[in-house]
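Okay, can you check this protein?
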Amino acid sequence: MKRFGATQWDTHEGYFITVDSKIPIDLDRMTKAFEETINRHGSFRTTFHWDEGGDKLLQTIHPSVNVHNASIVDLSEEPNAYKKAYDMSLANNMNPNFSLDKLPLISSVMFKLGGGAYAFNITVHHIMTDETSLGIFFYDLFQLYIHGIDSLPPVQLHYSDFSDWLIRTAGRRAELRDEQLEYWSKKLNGVQPLVLTLARPSEVEQSPITQIEGQIDPSALSRYNDYVSTTPATSFAAFFAAYNLLLYKYSAQNSFVVGTAVTQRSMAQLQEVVGFFANMLPIRTTIEEEMTFAEYLEMFRYDLVADLSNDDVTLEEIVSQTKTSSQDRSYFKHLFAPGGLNMRIVNRLDASDITTTAVVSLPNGEEKYEFLLTVHYKTGEVVLRFDNYLYTEETARQFLDAYCSLIDSLGRNPHVKIGDVSAVSDNEHSRLVKELSTSGPVIPVESKLHQLVEAQAKRTPTAVAVEFEDQYLTYAQLNAKANRLARLLSQQGVGPDSVVAVCFERGIPQILAILAILKAGGAFLPLDPDDPTLRKEMLIVDANAKILLATYAQRRDFDKALASKVIVSDTQAIALQCITVSIGRVHR
């Protein structure tokens, strides 16, 4: 089980399922169907414990599971039964109290909503099942309830059989592992965390919900799917590419990583085996303004195929191998998911009395991502889970609506240049143009540059603020370093009406020096390092600059002519270090 890094991602998954039944559901019959479903599959009869001597996780498959009698929560008299059931399911999902060494690692609650409507809350530990497995579970549950306990044939293949195969082929897969880890090390070299301009970090929740739903217009969906069918790309790649494009528009980062879960069910025999076959991969992409979307899709498809052919290693192994120095060692906090729960399996039911009306995945406190977009290619349903400490419901809705509009515009013109693609929905565009526009005088809002940087550092402290070659500073780092230098400048007497000369080659120290001078209240005099020394000296004298900020290389030029020293910038460390300075008058 450790092979798939099951304990390295969400430790459990919860679902809220609603059904309509023409006749009242028999609780005793449903309990028996639930117990039989659990006992049919080895994964549902599994516990785990840690072997201290062998330093590994051991799996035990029990011959049977005793399921306690289920109960039904009657909410039929509640004014909003659906919301009440959902809220209760959400609370159950936040703290399921699973223990790996105790059966069962799955729980279920049924709600009677009234009017023939029912809801189920299913919560399962992620170490033993994935979303495809949950589709199998629901199919078996309703099949056994409707047609009886003996209506399904015995299960021929269990996850333990797959585990045995993994053990027998461990030698060959170890060779593949080394090759694939080398691939990921090169692929992820130099990657930076993705930060969206929509994010507004807060210490309190900005929204009472963490999930919203939307719908791609049917005609727009049809056009986009028709276009995709003319390309070598799969629907997975095409809808994923559109998500990447929108993330690019809201971040202005042309290279970033988005996570996605892929299935290890490569063999036909594994398609209906319950177990954890999912694997999370960090998919890196690069987007250029001058590309058309069609060109980007082709490039992304090619890269995605290469990534998916190296999916025999876990995210944990990738992160450990690459030893990234990035602040976010998981590489990504934005994810893309294709279609969610496998409803294809559930919809095979030939039930005439029970109809599944909705399946909603439930968020939990262990989810560490900012956005998780789930797209159902055939129906056009889109679901966005979001971090409500970073995003309000309004901003999340803005993003989701923009995605739906993007599918529409790309379906109409897939050959549009990426630089010309709009990042707002039609409704948002109308609001910006009509509601927020005005024919009256516009009063300018004045802000100082260093104050804008300080405000941005509070909103997105981990976002990259300045980058030059292989060096960069986040907003938090830039602001902190500028504050330190500003204090040193103030100690040297820099304040209003003070002029500080700045002499740097292009790079981060130049930006840092200017920001620090503004924070100290002074004005800066930029000097071109390539100018003759005499010209630079004359400019210093004419501006009455009392302090000069420069690199060690530039300092040597000034030391020949000036009687005193200058403040020096160590460009290698990207940190300005001060020594006592005072520039004297230059004698002509």
About this structure: Residues 110 and 120 are 5 Å apart (CA to CA).
